[in-house]
Amino acid sequence: MLVTKWKIFKKKYITKLSAFLLFIVFLLIGVSSALNIYLKVKNYESIAVKNYLESDTISNDLRYAVNRLEFILRVYKNEEYILSGGTVENIGIKDNWKLSNLYNNYIAENNYEDSSEIRELFFIEQQQEIQEIKESIISSDQANYEKIISELNLPQGYIYYATDGENETTNTGNPNKEFYLLRNAYIILNEKGIELSPENGGGVSDPLNDIFESETFNRNMRIYAALEDDALLHRANRWNSDRQILIRNTTVIIICILLVIANFSYLISSAGKVAGSDEIHLTSFDNLYTDINLALIAGIAAGCRMEFYNVLNIKFTSENLMRLAMLIITAAISALLLILVLSLARHIKKRTIIKHSVIYIILSKSVETLINMAASGPLMYKTIGAAILVIIASVYAADKPLLIAGILFISTYIIYNKVTHFHKIQEGLQVAKNGDYDYKIRLEGKGEFRRLSEDINEITSGLKSAVESEVRSEKLKTELITNVSHDIKTPLTSIISYVDLLKREGLDSNNAPKYLDVLERKSNRLKNLTEDLFEAAKATSGSIEPKFERVHINSLIEQLLGELDEKIHESNLIFKVSATNEKVYAMADGRLLSRVMENLLSNIFKYTLKGSRVYIEISEDENNVSISFKNISAGELNIPVNELMERFKRGDESRSSEGSGLGLAIAKSLMEVQKGLLELSIDGDLFKAEIRLSKF
Asked: Do domains 457-542 and 544-694 have the same CATH topology?
C-alpha cells in the first residue's frame, strides 16, 4: 500500500518538488554570490575597467584627498585652533541643534516670544549650558579632525602638503611641488587651478572646481597630494582582486538568475496540472483567499527591504552570522512567496482568481441578498409598497414631474411584467393539464413567479417520470409473468412428457437411461431457476448484510479462473488478464464479489464467440478500483444496454439458452449492496462489463 502511494506521489509531484527545491537552491547560491560582492568588493567600477590607472576611481580618490585637506584648512585650521574654540567662536542658535533645543526650552519655560533681546538674555542666563554645548562641539570637531588625518595617513594612503598661507598640514614636511609631480598619481591645487594625473572622471561639476571658482577661495592656498608607488601598487592589486571577485560572482549570479527563471517558469506552467488529467487541481494551500494572498505577498515584499537592511547591519558584529541569517531568511521568504504565487497561478488557470476572494464573496452575497429581498415576499406587499412609493413621491416631489413620471413608468413596467409572467404560467398549466408534460414554462428574472414556474416545471417533470415509470413497471410485470411462465413451463412440460414415456415403456426399456438423463437436466434447470429467483429476491429486498474486508482483486480473479479452468478449456476461449499493479486491494465482501464475477463469467461462457479472446483488466486510481470484462458476442446484440440488467432479460431474445436471465440483475444488486457499481456497454459486437469499488 505504501509503495503504491509513493509511486503515485512520485508520478505526480516529484518533478515539481525537485523544481521547487532547485529554485530555492539556485536563489540561495545567487544571494551568496551577491553577499560575496557586498562583503569583499570595495569598488564596483573594476568590472568594467581593467586597469586601475584608467579608472575614475583613482582620480576621484585624489580629488577626495584634496577636498578633505581643503576642508581642514578652511574649517579646522589646525588642532590648536580647534582646542582654542576657534570652530565655535561665532556659533549661533541656528548653527547647532543642541543650542536650538536649549533655546526653545528656554522660551517655553519662561513664556517668552522669540526676539533679538530674548536671545541676548538667553546667552547671558544660559552661559554655563551654552559653554558645555560648545565644549562638546570642540570635542566632536577634534575627533573628526583626527579621523580625517588618520584616513589620509593610512599605510597605503597619501603623501601630502597643504597650506593656506597661515596654517599648514603635511605628513612629509616637503612643500616642493616637484616632489609630488614625480609620482605616477598626483593632484595639485593652487592659484593656477587644478592639475591632476591621471586625468579620469570628474569634470566641470566637480566640487573642487566649484571651490576653486568661488569668490571665497583663498588664493594663497596650495595643496599637493600624491600616491607612493607601493600605495599605488596596493590599490591596483586590490582593484584587480575586486575585478576577479566581481566577474566570478556576477557570472554565477547571471547563471543562477537564468536557472531560477527556468524553474519558476516550469512551476508556473505545471501549477495545478496532474498527469493524465486536463483539469486544474487545487491544493490545500489554495483555500487561502486570493486577495489575502496578494496582501501577504505585498506585505512580505514591503517588509523584505527593511529586514534585509537590518540583517546586513549584523556584518559589523559578525560577517558569518550575517551571511547565515541572510541565507535562512532568503530561503524562508522565497519558499513562502513561491507557494503563494503558485497558488495564485492555479487560481488564474482555474479562473477562480476573482471568485475566490473575500471582496468578491462579500459583494456577491450583498448583491444576492438585496436581489432576494427585492424579489421575495407576496406580490400584494410589493404592490402596496409601490403604491406607497408613488404617493410619497407625489407629495414630496410634486415640483419634480420627471421624477414622478419615472416612478410611474417603472411601476407600470413592473406590473406589466408580472401580468405577463402570470399569463405564461396559466398557459403552461393548461398545456400540462392536457397531458403535455414536456412543456416548460420559461420566465426571465427572479421573483415569486419565477420560483412558481420552476416548481410547476418540476411537478410536470415528476409527473412525466411517474407515468413513464408506471408504464415501464406494467410492461415489466407482463414480461416477468410471461418469462417466468415460459421458463418454468418448458422444463416442466419436458419432465411430464418423459415421466409419461417411462410409465409406458418401463424402466427396463432401452430408452430409459436417455429419458432419465433428460429428466435430471430439466430438474436441475428448474432447481437453478428457483435458486436464482430466491437470490434475486434477497438481493433486491435489502436482507443481505455485507461483511466488508480487504480483498486482493488479483488473487480473487486468479482463483476464479483456476476453478473454471476445465470450463475455459472446453469453451475454447482465451482469457487475457492485465493489471496496472500486482497488488490491487478493494473494500468489499469477498463472497458477494466472487458471486458477481461468477455471474459475469457465466454470461461470458454462454454468449461469447467461440475461439475468441476475453479481456479482464484491473486498474486503480486515487479512490477506486475497476475490473472490466470484455468479450465478443457470438450473436447480434440487439437489446438496449439499459435493459440487459433487467430480470429475465437475455442476450438471446429467442430464449433458447439455458440461462435464467437473472445473472446480470443479481450481479447489479449485489454490487449495490457493496456500495459499488456495475456498468454495461455495447460497441457493435463488443460487450463490456465494468465493476467499480472503493479502494482499500
From this structure: no
